[in-house]
Amino acid sequence: MAQNLPRRLSGGLFVSLEGGEGSGKSTLLDRLAEFLAGEGYAVLITREPGGPPIAEAIRTILLDPSHAGMDPLTELFLYLGSRRQNLQERIQPHLDAGGVVLCDRFSDASVAYQGGGRGLGLERVERLNTEAIGTARPDLTFLLDLAPEAGLARKLGTGAAATPGDRLEREALDFHRRVREAYREWAARHPQRIRILDAARPPGEVAATALAALREALAARAAD
């Protein structure tokens, strides 16, 4: 029946969630997906690195702790390869069909992690992003901002209950601090697209703020 067809938006809506380890991206993504499904939108949930099989295979390489000696540019190129495959195979077709994409990290992650964390430079990484994916960028990005100490404690636990984590989670605290600062600097450059959320607040409050911005974006796209 026609009334059961998913709601469509011209050109779709691309939403990404960014932030350091343990910042609450997965929790917020679930809240946003639940809202969108309840409103009748066709929702694609994906992640970086990952998504389609080729990109998931790259994810395995990137996060394997035994690859601790990976060169920063090698790391970046692997992320770019995963990103392009996900964009071409999953993200862009869904947007072209008028759906909503929720992506756990996208191009901003490389700016922060490889540009800031690895010291490759924010502008350099963004240029390489453009080589890989052209002008494709999220329409709306939520940056969950949290002190790395708190995020890593959330993600990995503390004391006897602590887990070692994947290759990036095992990086030194200074690395994660550089990532956070790069995220914050990048958000300041793109205030219309990137909304900073205080991830130290209760998850319900974070979700409420994000949902208000998402409703605005949906309304604006529907009016186009």
For this entry, give a set of tags:
alpha/beta; Rossmann fold; 8 helices; 12% strand; 224 residues
Overview of the molecule:
With 224 residues, the chain is α/β, with parallel strands linked by helices. The chain has a single domain (2-223), classed as P-loop containing nucleotide triphosphate hydrolases (Rossmann fold, 3-Layer(aba) Sandwich). The chain has eight helices and five strands; from the N terminus they run βαβααβααβααβα. It has helices at residues 25-38, 53-63, 72-96, 107-117, 122-133, 148-156, 173-189, 203-223, and strands at 13-19, 43-47, 100-104, 140-145, 194-198. Strands 2-3-1-4-5 form a five-stranded parallel beta sheet, with helices on both faces. The model has no long low-confidence stretch (mean pLDDT 95).
